[in-house]
Design goal:
The complex is a heterodimer. By secondary structure, chain A is of the alpha+beta class. Helices cover 22% and strands 24% of the residues of chain A. Chain A contains three helices and five strands. Chain A has a five-stranded mixed β-sheet with strand order 2-1-5-3-4. In chain A, strand 3 and strand 4 form a beta hairpin. The N and C termini of chain A lie far apart (42 Å). The model of chain B has no long low-confidence stretch (mean pLDDT 96). By secondary structure, chain B is mainly beta. In chain B, a hairpin with a 2-residue loop joins strand 18 and strand 19. Helix content of chain B is 0%, strand content 41%. In chain B, 53% of the residues are buried. Chain B has a four-stranded antiparallel β-sheet, with no helix packed on it. Chain B has a four-stranded antiparallel β-sheet with strand order 4-5-6-7, with no helix packed on it. Classes of the chains: A alpha+beta, B mainly beta. Chains A and B meet through helix 1 of A and strand 6 of B.
């Protein structure tokens, strides 16, 4: 089990009563999906807010980012090294919509 | 009655207004669920301290929360609304088949006597029920799988089941309204459904009197006369005196028969209320005058204006944004897309302003304390 840092968007922080950055234990294999499953398990109020309940995929207006890049929508991808090393947090970002 | 709690859902959160029993002194809460679109927030009449809230965003999907202490604290409950069985298509705006997709909860309807039972109307149109106070939801799928369902088409707001009316005299009777499909009634707790749209005429339909396809905006029922229903359709105000089997138009002298809300005076089951809106493209009242119209006869309407803006008002009152209490004389409460909430404690003789600068109001409900 690896302990990582995750940064949450404002509305989800408020919903689950969490700080901007939280720590999370992720079981292997440490994929992006494993992070979201661990997040929902640790904080049940977040269930259904990150992944589409039907497809299990990342919700269309959310971005997972680390190491200065968008990690894409393939949740089977491994968690970036710098996140696993706790050098930085995995960012969950809501896409910008509107003007 | 020891007071009233008015529950207001808005585009950016919810607010709770609480008054004393004379409904003269009001307190307003801080924003609840700030930043979320609160389509509906409603208390259980079996337990007014129990409140359900349905809110969502395009980013994070649907949330349902429940409070058991009048809104002081909230608990997240179930947000999985899974259609039952194989899900076929409905008809898209352009006439092509389109898959049924859950988008959001529009309306929560707590059962009048069973404390833990609550219904949810959702988009794309379906009816769900929870028997455990919102923790888990089961679709009453006979509605969505009705033989007419492949012909259902969305209205401007989507294919939404926005109205659920429960008959207090017949617990197994449920009415629903869907935009833009029409009204449906179940007499067996949702096991089977009948379209009840006879008498409706809709100019947007190739066959104006079709069995389904009507854009019903809202229906209302008075508990003392449950066979009588009032309806605000896209255009036309309608009435049925046989549980929806037949409808007749009662638009009469209204300045326009387009609108969204319809309610009924708690003290007079013949006295319906509507708020006419200029047209389906101009979503504001005629002449910039915000007026509630009360039915005073078969199809004669009387304008209620005291305390309401009578110039330069260009907001709308959405379908779930008018409610009445159970006091005598009756209270009327409604909210506008321009962020105002108005209340009358004398059945509409006059209104006072509870708020003027909220986000756009999506829903208003009342709980008698």
């Amino acid at each position: 089990v690896t302990r990582i840092r995750v940064e949450l968007p404002h509305l989800l922080r408020r919903l689950a009563g969490l700080e901007r950055e939280i720590e999370l234990e992720v079981a292997p294999p440490q994929t992006l999906e494993a992070v979201l499953v661990a997040l929902e398990g640790a904080h049940p109020a977040l269930q259904g807010t990150l992944r589409d309940p039907l497809t299990g995929g990342l919700r269309p207006l959310l971005i997972l980012a680390a190491e200065g890049r968008d990690l894409g929508v393939d949740l089977k991808c491994p968690v970036p090294e710098r996140v696993l090393a706790r050098d930085e947090a995995l960012l969950i970002i809501g896409s910008v919509m509107g003007g | 009655m020891n007071g009233v709690r008015v529950l207001v859902g808005t585009r950016k959160g919810a607010f709770i207004f609480t008054s004393n029993d004379s409904r003269t002194a009001w307190q307003v809460s801080e924003p609840l669920f700030a930043g979320w679109e609160v389509y509906h927030i409603k208390a259980s009449s079996a337990d007014p301290q129990r409140i359900y809230a349905a809110y969502s965003t395009a980013w994070f999907g649907q949330i349902v929360q429940r409070s058991d202490d009048g809104g002081a604290t909230w608990e997240t409950v179930g947000n999985e609304f899974k259609y039952s069985g194989e899900v076929g298509p409905h008809t898209w705006y352009d006439g092509t088949p389109h898959p049924w997709e859950f988008r959001r909860v529009w309306h929560l309807e707590p059962h009048p006597t069973e404390r833990d039972t609550v219904y949810a109307g959702v988009e794309d149109a379906a009816l769900f029920v929870s028997k455990d106070a919102g923790v888990t939801w089961t679709e009453l799928s006979a509605l969505r799988t009705h033989e007419s369902a492949p012909r259902w088409t969305p209205g401007a707001g989507g294919l939404c089941l926005h109205t659920i009316v429960l008959d207090p005299s017949r617990p197994e009777r449920i009415y629903t309204a869907i935009s833009a499909s029409g009204c449906f009634r179940s007499d067996d707790s949702g096991a089977s459904w009948t379209p009840i749209n006879r008498g409706l005429v809709s100019s947007h339909l190739p066959e104006g009197t079709a069995e389904v396809g009507h854009c019903v905006h809202r229906i209302a029922l008075h508990p003392s006369r449950p066979e009588t229903l009032f309806m605000q359709k896209h255009w036309d105000v309608m009435r049925s005196d046989n549980g929806g089997d037949d409808w007749r138009e009662i638009s009469g002298n209204l300045p326009t028969d387009f609108g969204f809300v319809v309610g009924i005076d708690p003290g007079d089951p013949e006295r319906a209320f509507v708020i006419p809106i200029k047209s389906d493209s101009e979503h504001f009242p005629p002449e910039g005058k915000l007026r509630v119209y009360a039915l005073e006869g078969e199809d004669t309407w009387h304008a209620l204006t005291v305390g309401l803006p009578q110039e330069n008002f260009y907001g709308n009152v959405l379908r779930d944004a008018l409610a009445t209490d159970t006091a005598s004389p009756g209270g009327i409460y409604f909210g506008t897309t321009s962020g105002a909430v108005y209340a009358s404690r004398n059945a509409g003789a006059s209104f006072e302003t509870l708020a003027e600068h909220l986000p756009a109001v999506l829903s208003v409900e009342v709980a008698a304390l």
